[in-house]
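Quick one, T. Sequence first:
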Amino acid sequence: MPAQKLYKRRLTKDEITLLYEQLRKAWPSPKSELNYVNPYTLLVAVTLSAQATDKGVNRATEALFKVVTTPEQMISLGDEGLKEHIKTIGLYNNKAKNVIAMSKMLVEEYDSQVPEDREALVTLPGVGRKTANVVLNVAFGHETFAVDTHIFRVGNRTGLAPGKTPEKVEAELDRLTPVPYRVHAHHWLILHGRYVCKARKPDCQKCPIYDLCQFRGKEILE
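Structure tokens:
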């Protein structure tokens, strides 16, 4: 017998518009919580953030980005030098290897510039679709939807964009998100999932979209 869906029903077109409008009021100026200097350092930070917190990555890159802001500088720092900066981050050995390889590829194939193209980005070592979508959205303003655990959870709980895989949730968000909200939708949903619709216990008392949310397990407010 299939598991029960997390949501009671899917949101209507009008409800989706209202949901985004209410998230916009809650976070009028959303932005990435990762610190970065330019598109290259953003790419590095997002690559390092896999299975790590943004705060943890920011602590590690604070000193790193004072000495490294280009692929050439990263290559000069080298694998061991990079590890010294990021050893507090999980999987740092493999991440260091990928960042150095990624930097070399940027120098050799992209004139040291971060390509503004998803197909090109995902060919870089350590860069998957989610990382590529973050970079395209944050660095270049593309209307992309980087589905992390927070967005996956919110999409399935609320009835906004349910799906069994991150790719399915991404496709639904792309299909259903109205034009005025497309650039910032990714950030609103991440912030909502990180600070309100938390994994273990959503904070329904503070939820700006409580009335719209179709989550079967949401708290019954007085």
